Amino acid sequence: MSKEIKSDGDGSNIRIGIVVAEYNEFITFKLLEGAEQTLLGNGVSENDICVSYVPGSFEIPVVANKMASSGKYDAIICLGAVIKGETDHYDYVSEGAAHGIARIALDTGVPVMFGVLTTHNVEQAIDRCGGSKGNEGSACALAAIQTVNVLKQN
Ligand code: INI
Question: pTM, whole model, 2 decimals?
Answer without folding.
Answer: 0.97
